[in-house]
């Protein structure tokens, strides 16, 4: 009695504490204290019998879960029966349980079942099936089947691997029975008289069955277990618009399953899709009737069918693909009226289909299939209407007017159709694919768009005269969209230059006229939409660069067209140069500069250098009032114009004329920069900190850096550039020392030198590179570096990042001629950077280890030189010197490898993966593991670290790679791995002797890779399982 009173009091206390904890969170110390009591697991049986609190029940079930998973086999038969009785009673007779507790109890029953199932799986499944077949317990039986699937195939380390394998094998044997019973239940529910007397119960039961099937579908080999009866049942429920059946079908298709009667299965899926899409497009009200979720899942079904099975049915006469596409076309248009996920999926379906056709055309050399021409050109036309305000204003007005982005979204990037620019860009992507597939028909279909754009552009002068330009906003947006579309199509003019010349020259001349109108009337002053228009015109003209290059090649063969070609080049220059003006918006000036640069480096017209002579001569006056970003683009374009020779090798490259032009061009940029160190009081009076001085330095460095990045890959051009900037190199190196404590300037200097070494490495030479890097290491080797690394300012990390990139590039580029700097570079990395960042989350860590990998990869022989000490030709002094060098290089190698090992002891999964890959590359190329295994202490600790990362689960995402690396290491000396490393690691663990022996017995000394991996996975699971038992 007294004991019951104590339990009753404790129950009352829990009923007070638990609601507060589960609803509000907070301190759980009292709960953990209670769970740790020796009689806690016995007391919960009392609570489960006497409490109606769902929180108490859930808490009690959690304690029982621990008992079942850790102590079940140690319980007496009576204790096991008592526990089973109360859990089963709770599950079957406690009607007031909330859903999460019902699921929890089912999980516990399944956990208990893991022990009983191994002895008699047939009886166990029969007992569960009796619950499913009993109307009173059917729902609970179905849920229990689901939890059996989950718990018997768990990846958690709560059962041994052998038990997992046995359970999976035995459960697979019972899967046909389970699927048969669930299928029968579904069919019985279908055959009940309609309407169902209890709709809610009916739907709950149907959905529970499908959720259970989904659970089994996630792990069983579907090809072996899908039956025609089940598939037929799924399709019957699909006809009833059941979402859960759709989920099952999607799971089947997503696994690219090939069931028995595969052709019939595909044909049925195909017909069901056709039938349902046809019903939906003929009765548009069905979209709202079926609901958002169903439509999305159904569209996903179409997507999975097209992605996984299109190639199997596209040319099969039994499948009417054209009917399918016609229905999909109407279905897509229906979805396009709303901002749903379904429309995005539809667009992805068309992209997949078009990519499939384009791959066949491009890789197999077949013609574009004529049977799709009319339908796809119609789709092209409809998509065009949906991206123009003239046809779709209400819809487009709903979208957010996001920032423009020149870059197309990556294939795996999430598409946000709520952004107007993204929606338009994605649609243009589909339109351009159709046009690429059918260029003649596609371009013809789109011709009216450009004509309309020109007509709309002609309204601008009159609208400006009437002071009503703002009334053209929608028209301007449409012109911008049309021009963006044509920018994606200009590559189609290149392969068939002669056939498309009239079309292309019409568009190009029209673009020049539109640009001229915009510049004359200064439409960019009206607002952002007009700025975007002018900018897009320039971008679309720029997209013609390759076509202009082909045009230039054509007129060299047929000189009669040279005058016309030279004229349009001149007209292009004439629309560019006026935009190099301080009153013009920066984005437009930058686009104009990029256009000039593309003319120089892509089109390469032979007349360009002569036609821009006046611009080149006056460029410094032109750029005087422009902001630095604009100047950088323009100066780079002029540099390219001077240094890029015509593409035709037979033409005179005019280096004797270009070189004299280039030197004064660069001097006009750098002259004031060269004078900076001579400023009176520059150092003593700290004038180097003056804002205008700093601005002048950064401006010059940014411009010259941009120029170097655009230098043509032509030896003569690089030599001219190097000669022109040679006098600023020592000045910049001196300024590095001066501005060591000014991060913004330091960043610009390092960016300059990195670009210099990258673009002009041959011209700069090894000696100057070594001198520069020696200065960097010397100046940054003290407290300056530590301040940069530990500052909260991102620019500090940026500076160190650029320095590491310079070091990495130099080591990769200059090879053995750079070995004199290896020791100071290694010391800098290992003594100055590594200690500061290794225990932090610094973004520099991956770059540092990339540098260390590059050192090892490119200078492996530095660490393992060929020994010549024994040579009789060597005297003792040289032998001693060589021995000392070997000792130094050995110590450096040891410190580098130890640094790598340190990252294998940390939880940074990305750095772990990167460095593991570096180890694998070094092993493949230089046999790293053979060297490591010769160092017993290091090799053992490294393997121990791999074992720890695997058994702790902290690197579970990298486990497969870690196991593969471990195998490659072990394969150097299997006996040492099995009989020394593996055994010693187990001996250091807290496992019992019996547990260690079981693990050793299960880990056979096999040498083939698949068996080794399988053994390692079993070892990881069992080690985690036994640790779980010991620690709990």
UniProtKB/TrEMBL annotation:
InterPro entries in the cross-refs: ARM-like, ARM-type_fold, Exportin-1/Importin-b-like, XPO6
GO term, biological process aspect, one: protein export from nucleus
Subcellular location: Cytoplasm; Nucleus
Principal location: cytoplasm
GO cellular component, one term: cytoplasm
Keyword annotations of the record: Cytoplasm, Nucleus, Protein transport, Transport
Coiled coil: none
Sample GO molecular function, one term: nuclear export signal receptor activity
Pfam families for this protein: Xpo1
Superkingdom assignment: Eukaryota
Domain Exportin-1/Importin-beta-like residue range list: 102-245
Record-annotated membrane-spanning stretches: none
Assigned protein family: Belongs to the exportin family.
Record protein name field: Exportin 6
Organism: Cavenderia fasciculata
Name of the gene this protein is made from: xpo6
């Amino acid at each position: 009695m007294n004991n019951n009173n104590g339990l009753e009091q404790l129950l009352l206390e829990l009923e007070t504490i638990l609601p507060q904890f589960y609803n509000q969170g907070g301190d759980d110390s009292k709960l953990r204290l209670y769970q740790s009591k020796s009689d806690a697991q016995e007391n919960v049986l009392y609570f489960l019998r006497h409490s109606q609190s769902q929180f108490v029940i859930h808490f009690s079930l959690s304690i029982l879960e621990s008992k079942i998973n850790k102590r079940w086999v140690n319980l007496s038969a009576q204790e096991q029966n008592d526990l089973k009785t109360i859990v089963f009673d709770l599950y079957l007779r406690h009607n007031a349980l909330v859903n999460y507790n019902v699921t929890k109890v089912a999980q516990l029953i399944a956990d208990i079942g893991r022990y009983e199932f191994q002895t008699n799986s047939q009886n166990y499944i029969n007992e569960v099936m009796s619950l499913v077949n009993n109307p009173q317990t059917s729902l609970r039986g179905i849920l229990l089947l689901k939890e059996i699937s989950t718990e018997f195939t768990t990846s958690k380390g709560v059962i041994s691997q052998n038990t997992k394998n046995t359970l999976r094998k035995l459960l697979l044997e019972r899967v046909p029975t389970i699927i048969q019973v669930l299928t029968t239940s579904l069919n019985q529910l279908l055959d009940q008289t309609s309407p169902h007397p209890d709709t809610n119960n009916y739907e709950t039961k149907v959905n529970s069955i499908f959720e259970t099937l989904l659970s089994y579908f996630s792990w069983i080999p579907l090809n072996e277990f899908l039956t025609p009866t089940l598939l037929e049942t799924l399709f019957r429920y699909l006809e009833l618009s059941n979402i859960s059946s759709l989920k099952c079908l999607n799971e089947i298709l997503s696994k690219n399953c090939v069931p028995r009667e595969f052709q019939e299965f595909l044909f049925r899926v195909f017909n069901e899709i056709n039938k349902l899409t046809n019903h939906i497009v003929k009765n548009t009200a069905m979209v709202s009737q079926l609901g958002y979720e169903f439509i999305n899942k159904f569209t996903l079904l179409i997507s999975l069918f097209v992605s996984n099975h299109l190639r199997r049915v596209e040319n099969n006469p039994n499948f009417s693909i054209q009917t399918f596409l016609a229905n999909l076309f109407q279905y897509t248009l229906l979805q396009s009226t709303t901002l749903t996920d379904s429309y995005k999926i539809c667009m992805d379906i068309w992209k997949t289909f078009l990519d499939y056709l384009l791959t066949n055309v491009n890789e197999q050399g077949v013609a574009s299939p004529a049977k799709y021409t009319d339908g796809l050109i119609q789709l092209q036309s409809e998509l065009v209407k949906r991206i123009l305000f003239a046809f779709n204003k209400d819809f487009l007005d709903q979208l957010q007017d996001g920032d423009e982005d020149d870059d197309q979204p990556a294939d795996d990037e999430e598409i946000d159709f709520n952004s107007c620019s993204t929606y338009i860009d994605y649609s243009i992507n589909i339109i351009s694919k159709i046009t690429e597939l059918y260029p003649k028909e596609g371009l013809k279909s789109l011709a009216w768009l450009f004509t309309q754009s020109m007509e709309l552009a002609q309204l601008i002068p009159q609208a400006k005269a009437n002071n009503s330009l703002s009334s053209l906003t929608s028209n301007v947006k449409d012109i911008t969209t049309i021009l963006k579309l044509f920018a994606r199509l200009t590559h189609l003019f290149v392969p068939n230059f002669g056939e498309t010349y009239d079309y292309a020259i019409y568009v190009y001349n029209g673009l020049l006229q539109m640009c001229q109108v915009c510049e004359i009337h200064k439409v960019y002053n009206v607002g952002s939409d007009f700025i975007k228009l002018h900018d897009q015109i320039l971008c679309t003209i720029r997209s013609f660069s390759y076509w202009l290059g082909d045009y230039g090649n054509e007129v060299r063969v047929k000189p009669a067209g040279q005058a016309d070609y030279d004229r349009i080049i001149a007209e292009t220059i004439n629309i560019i140069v006026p935009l190099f003006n301080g009153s013009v918006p920066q984005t437009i000036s930058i686009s104009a500069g990029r256009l000039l640069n593309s003319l120089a480096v892509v089109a390469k017209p032979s007349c360009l250098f002569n036609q821009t002579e006046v611009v080149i001569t006056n460029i410094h006056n032109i750029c005087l009032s422009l902001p630095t970003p604009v100047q950088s683009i323009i100066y780079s374009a002029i540099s390219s114009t001077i240094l890029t020779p015509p593409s035709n090798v037979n033409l005179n490259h005019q280096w004797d004329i270009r070189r004299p032009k280039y030197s004064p061009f660069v001097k006009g940029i750098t002259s004031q920069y060269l004078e900076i160190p001579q400023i009176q009081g520059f150092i003593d009076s700290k004038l180097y900190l003056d804002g205008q001085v700093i601005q002048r330095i950064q401006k010059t460095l940014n411009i010259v850096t941009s120029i170097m990045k655009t230098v043509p890959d032509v030896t003569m051009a690089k030599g001219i550039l190097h000669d022109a900037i040679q006098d600023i190199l020592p000045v910049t190196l001196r300024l590095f020392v001066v501005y060591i404590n000014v991060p913004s300037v330091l960043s610009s200097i390092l960016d300059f030198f990195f670009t210099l070494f990258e673009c002009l490495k041959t011209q700069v030479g090894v000696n100057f590179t070594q001198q520069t890097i020696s200065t960097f290491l010397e100046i940054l080797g003290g407290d300056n570096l530590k301040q940069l690394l530990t500052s909260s300012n991102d620019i500090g990390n940026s500076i160190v990042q650029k320095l590491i990139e310079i070091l990495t590039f130099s080591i990769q580029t200059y090879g053995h001629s750079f070995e004199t700097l290896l020791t100071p570079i290694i010391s800098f990395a290992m003594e100055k950077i590594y200690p500061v960042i290794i225990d932090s989350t610094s973004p520099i860590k991956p770059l540092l280890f990339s540098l260390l990998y590059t050192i090892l990869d490119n200078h492996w022989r530095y660490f393992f030189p060929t020994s010549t000490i024994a040579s009789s030709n060597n005297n003792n002094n040289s032998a001693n010197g060589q021995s000392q060098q070997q000792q130094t290089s050995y110590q450096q190698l040891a410190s580098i490898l130890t640094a790598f090992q340190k990252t294998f002891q940390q939880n940074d999964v990305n750095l772990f993966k990167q460095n593991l890959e570096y180890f694998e590359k070094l092993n493949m190329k230089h046999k790293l593991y053979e060297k490591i295994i010769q160092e017993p202490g290091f090799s053992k600790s490294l393997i121990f670290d791999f074992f720890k990362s695997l058994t702790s689960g902290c690197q579970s995402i990298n486990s497969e790679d870690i196991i593969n690396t471990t195998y490659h290491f072990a394969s150097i000396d299997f006996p040492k791995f099995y009989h020394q490393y593996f055994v010693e690691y187990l001996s250091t663990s807290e496992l019992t002797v019996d547990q260690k022996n079981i693990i050793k017995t299960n880990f056979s000394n096999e040498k083939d890779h698949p068996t080794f991996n399988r053994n390692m996975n079993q070892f990881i699971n069992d080690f985690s399982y036994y640790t779980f038992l010991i620690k709990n």
